[in-house]
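Revision sheet: structure tokens.
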Amino acid sequence: MDVHSFSKPDEAKVKHYDLDLTVDFDKKIISGKAACTIETGKGAKHLILDTRDLKIDKVTIGKDEKPAEFKLEKPVQFLGSALIIDIEEGTTLVTVYYSTSPTAAAVQWLNPEQTAGKKHPFLFTQSQAILARTWVPCQDSPGLRITYSATVHVPVGLLALMSATNPTELSKDGVYHFEMTNPIPSYLLALSVGDIVFKPISNRTGVYAEPATIDKSVYEFADLENMVDAAEKLYGPYAWGRYDLLVLPPSFPFGGMENPRLTFATPTILAGDRSLTSLVAHELAHSWSGNLVTNATWDDFWMNEGFTVYFERRIMEALYGKPFADMQAVLGYQDLEDNVNELGKESRDTDLKLQLKDRDPDDGMTSIAYEKGYFLLRLIEENVGREKMDNFLKTYFKSHSFQTITTEAFLEYFDKELIKGNTALANKIRINDWVYHPGIPTNCPKIISERFNEVEAQSDAFIKGTSAIKLNTKDYQTNEWMHFLSKLPTTMDRAKMNDLDHTFHFTDSGNSEILALWLERVINSNYEPAYPALENFLVHVGRRKFLKPLYADLLKTPQGIKMAKDIYAKARPNYHSVATNTIDEMIAKATK
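Predicted:
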């Protein structure tokens, strides 16, 4: 049972969707039909689909489209409404005619001014965790897999893309056809429409972006094919055919989304020096951990993300060396500590196995799943050896391909394939402490970065009075600057802020990771010269990872609350619902 889905797959399960959809930018709706090929159990009387804010026009069964009785149940918070469709014995096809709401939570409609080119509107969807049901009536559980085909009608002159086979050129009539023949969970359904062009990087990789950002994007992702090669050498063949990237407008709420064959990516990783491409390695790694082997429920989210962070850092180590990967692991540990402190060291939300019943599964998308999951796998590697760990993971991905897995099923597999009755090894790892207990276990691996030790010496020197211009920061890249800033006090006096800014030009940084950390200190230090940059960043960047800490800092003081509300009034139309849900709640709590 998936507590976040109304569907009853034992009674009737969707195996394939054939979508025929029309995108209407004027009305901000997607309309059309979803033809569901289903598999039924003995005596099945109903097909139950998840919906949220969908208008259901009619439902038919069979190829002859016989009208079917249906009802939409009362909405449930977070989950939407169950669509219960009467079916007959032997029914294999159910077609739902529907349209979305203009405020569908998965869909963001951008006017031309919100795009890089400023000439055409843009649309993208974000279905994870349970938002696919806001634009497709579906069995919206990660534990259920479907294939799909789609015909999508869009305004002539715009390109449509999906998590499927994709075009590389404009259609003359605005009609596009898609196929996804590998079974995927519903949260990987994705659609984007806009003024988009394509440039290849290799025979199986390439980049889609707006014309204004395509060249910068191609430069940034030059190592894409090398990443795929490195991943395959680690854990087996890439199973999805092509691996392309779509660089979205800045309102995209996540760093990236691992939609099969077409990762959706934020433009905030376009740093100009290829220093933020670990995010691409992360989304690529999801092609194995997440897309190939999927968490069965959102309580098992760490099964997607912990494995992916481990895989990501192995890719980065293979391409850029162990010191680089170790720096990222140290930064990850800092995020983990911050998240545990924020949630509370005894909070069950810091367990790997989550308990999200009656909650939005989005609540579980924290650093716990990512970084606590990573450090557990790192601990296992350190105790069994890298060769055995790699063989274990390669076999795990191969034996569970196109399947879902619960935490409990993984623990059984781990015990059978790695522990094999070795009590001493089991006692060193203590896997249940990681999975079912809060906080950071005492046997968490300690990562040492020699490069960061040198960085800390410079931050300490600055804190003790050395002027910024005398610091040895030559050849610093993103990782070093992030660590340098994280080791400085959150609050500094005007003289120190001026010294840093005049020397390193943080306020004018084009690197979003560096700028976001700097802006946290700008807020806490009341550094007014950077307020215009703060407002510009918050208005134009919709990535929740950056928004949440900056608004949290602003909301600590009465003056900051006023600034936050003023900025948010301008910024909110530019944010996706994933971000507005979070910031709305933060502001409401701060202004009670």
